[in-house]
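Quarterly update from the structural biology core.
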Amino acid sequence: MLSQRRYASLTVVSFKVEDVHKSELQGRFSRLGWRLEELHPNFGARISGIDARPLSFSSEQCLLLKAALASYDLLVFPDQVLTPAEEFAFITTFPDDKSAVARAQDSLVDESAHGPVLRIPDFPLITVWPQGIKLDDHWGLSTPEVVWEDHYLAWRQDWGDRLTSNSLTAVYHVESNEGNEVSFASASAAWDRLNPDEQRAAAELRAVYRRDAFAGCGVNDTCEHGILRMPLDAVERARAAADARGTTGTVLPLFNEDPLTGSRALNTHPLHFYTFEGMQRPEAGELLKSYILPVTSPDQVVKLTWKRGDLAVWKNRKVLHTGTPSRAADKAATRLFHMTLLDCDAPLQPITV
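Predicted structure, tokenized:
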């Protein structure tokens, strides 16, 4: 059964995703003139030959795209040249809750020109991130000077320190030189690799996040294994300063179940991680690393160099990512990309084992 929801000037068609096995997908994509190439045996795929410019796809095409994302968790579409309308129409093929997309879009209409984040005026869910670039009327957006953003080698999920983290992230590179790298790792594998006793213990963990203390505090220049802020004394000073201001953090399970998909996975943002309830930070840090390091070893990750025209969509609640490998490399990397966070309404649920 097809359903249609109309907002802005677009019609988005949603379909129930068939249970399509990975072994069937390549043949079905090939019959459409598309090519599906696995990026890793466990997750990730590149789909070439697809033109994302049409504002609508056939029911078979929509089913296959959603089935591919359900199977691989990360999809990369190279060589795209898109207007914001075309970009938005394509990426909203994937969300499980189309009504949440419409509500989020409507809630941001007045923020596109006045908020701290650059947003495409007619499509405010699409945020714009220049790196080493001065914007001059980029879809109505300009910056007075070249913009540099600090990026860090830090494994994380977007808004991984809140229960209403976005289910999907989409990134479209309008410009990119050869210095922009990204790595992805499977957060669901961090749960699946545990034995039943380990899963029971992991399901009980409650992580304490202090975004109020750590965001913008300047102590995330060095992260051990791309996970923990260092050194400890700087972290404690930032936490004490936030306590003195009267702000607080958030507490949520480290492993959660996504009500949209039923998947179980690690959900975290280590740059804002402070400790686990009932633990001292050093002990908690070692425990957090024990969950992340096995799934971020070189043989477990998908590593990409962003190119102009690359569009990627991934399941944020099932995939960890990190950016360029060093501050020096990041300063040499110039790019302009759009980022859209989708499906942010359904909160994660604690896992019952």
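DSSP finds ten helices and 21 strands in the chain.
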